[in-house]
Each structure stands twice: as structure tokens, then as C-alpha cells.
Amino acid sequence: MRYSALSIFKQAFAGNLGWTPAWREPAPKSHYDVIIVGGGGHGLATAYYLAREFGIRNIAVVEKGYLGSGNVGRNTTIVRSNYMLPGNEPFYEFSLKLWEGLEQELNYNVMFSQRGIINLYHNDGQRDQYIRRGNAMMMEGVGAELLDRESLKKMLPFLNFEHARFPIMGGLLQKRAGTARHDAVAWGFARGADRLGVDLIQNCEVTGIRRENGAVTGVETTRGFIGCNKLALAAAGNTSRVGEMAGLKLPIESHVLQAFVTEGLKPCIDHVITYGAGHFYISQSDKGGLVFGAEIDGYSSYAQRGNLATAEHVMEEGVTMIPGLSRVRVLRAWGGVMDMSMDGSPIIDRTPIENLYLNCGWCYGGFKATPASGFCFAHLIAKGESHHVARALRLDRFERGFPIDEAGVGTQPNLH
Q1: Most exposed among 4, 67, 130, 333, judged by the fewest C-beta atoms under 10 Å?
Q2: Domain Rhodanese spans what residues (predicted)?
Q3: Helix, strand or coil for residue 348?
């Protein structure tokens, strides 16, 4: 059914008994043109765009849990395109443009709010770095504005501007950035893909990948063997384990990234704010809770929970930036399994195996990239060649010496 204000009005008078399920619960068929491993945002978006843009509809998305049970439901909801390097900026700007029309296209409220993001800087070197980044953004047609200290004080009076070690000197603003409801994005793409005939198969874990004559013929699952012409991996932090089933050793590591939410407060933080003296980022949800996080835990893990030392570090950064946070109670914490690449940038490419395709290495950037990731991965699967905004995101760039090192820290995944 199509959602609208009229349908809400009608259902209210009908006791809300007429709503239909958002998607079907099909049994897996014996064979598909494309199987996508991973029922998160990227896998569901790939299935949706394959069906909508490229007319491939004999597709199965297989998910070992429920749809959206992975990183897409375990992040801090930030959407932005304020990148600097040529391999990243066009891609994330393409994604932001897709975000801007996503709710109308999917007929689903993903709560996309373009409230703007402000990256704070604390010294002259950081200021110069943000000037460079802002110029790079504007060269790609992306708006950016450098804010001085006085402008920030008017916008964000609750920040600790006079900290002895980390005085706030200004910030870089991208007005079109913002937040979205993380799991609603997965539900919207799932509903859209289902309407186009895609089979969404939940509680179906891949246990093996069958190959013959160098090509993939299908996947072994907890619900039996399913054959396919093409296999696409979009398993986020579990990509290494799934890739090993096909004999791939990938240049990624899996790390835990924690996130937190406070009790509900009256509106107090109008933007997304990131701390230049650390990696702390914060915004306020529609329910009033403050949603925030910082660095990964720094050790490899597949656990969807983090350690207390990192939680303490996150709280210290938050209170350093906003002293008033010390009076707010944290209600919940969770962790996502991040697939950290060697250079901190994603991989969307074919693999050395003929009909096996790879989407991984999203580090901190996976949620904001969801629409573009799905579109570009679908383009690759359907046409056999990279979309022009994703040509730099090749798997062999490390071998060729063309990393996309946005953070400038080299080939150390734990520092990205």
C-alpha cells in the first residue's frame, strides 16, 4: 500500500486494522540471477536499485538475522559529504543528492533532517586544514562555510570555548548535512525492493560459497543451497568471514564502534557537531535524546558491544566539549562491527573470482553512503563496470599504490 496523509487519516478511523505488512516473507527459490549477502542498508539499497534502475528483479537478499540488525541500526545517523579527496568527495556528494530525494522516491519517512554539520577546530593548523577541505568541497560544487569564534559563540553558546588545552577557534559548516533515522532507511529500502519483486530472506545465514570452474554457482545456507548467476557481498563487519568462504583474503579489519544515547531533553543542539581535539560527534534525535560516539575500540572484534575504557574516553571528550553533558544521564549504549580498510575508504569492485562482487571497507562512512553505495554497487553488478563516481574505490588500489587516505595516517585501519 502507498503511505500518505490520507491513508493515515483513513486508518485512524478504521482502528488501524487495514495496514499491510511492509514486505513479504518468501521462502528461498532454488536459483536467482543475483544473490546479495547482507540485509543491511547497503545490501537492501543495492537490491532496490538493481530492480528499479537496471531491471534485474530475480534477486534474493539473504540475512542471517533480521533486516537491519547490523550496522545500519547501530550507528549515530549522521549524513554528510564534507570530504576532501577526489576519490571520496564526488561519491559522498552523489550520495547526499540521493538522500535529498529519498523519502519521496521510497514513499517512506526516513526522518532525513538537513540541520547542518559543524567540524570544530582548535589551532591554526586545523584551521588551515579545514580551509583546504572547504576549498576542495567548493571545487566540486559543494557548499562550505568557515565560521570564526564569534559566529560559533552565537550559534553554539554551550560549547567550552575557553578550555586551556583545546580552545575552540572556529569551525567548518556544511549546511546540507544532517541526520536520518538509521533503521528506517533499511525498512524503506526493504519495502521498496520488495514492491519490485525482490525476495528478502531473513534468518538465513550463509555457511559456504560453492564454486565450479573458478566461478561462484551459489551459496550454502542454513535454509539449504541457493544457486545464482552472480553473488554480491555486502556484509559489513562480517565481510572477512564471508570472503574467506570464497578463498578471499581482504585488506580490512573488523573493529567495534560504540554509540550512546541520553535521556530525552528539550531541543538544545540544532546541528551535528564534531570535536576537532578528538573524534567526538553529537546530535539530538527527534525524541530528544543526545546521540553521540567517538573512536573505535582499537582492537579487532566481532562483538556488537564495546569496553568500558572506551566508554569512559567518549564521556570525557563529550564533557570537555560541552560541560553541561555532565548533568545528563546516558540510557543506552551499543556497538557496530566496522569493516575498517587499510586507507579508511570503501571498496566497491569486482573480485578476482569471475562473478563475485564486493562492497566493504566502510569504516565510519557506511551510513551516510547508503544510497550511493547501493546505486554504484548495482551499476557494477548490472553493467560489469564501475559507476564514474566510484571508479577510485577499486580493490587493487593498495597494490597499485593509489590509496584514498582521507585521514592522512597511512595503512593503519585502527587509526582511521
Answers
A1: 4
A2: 34-78
A3: strand
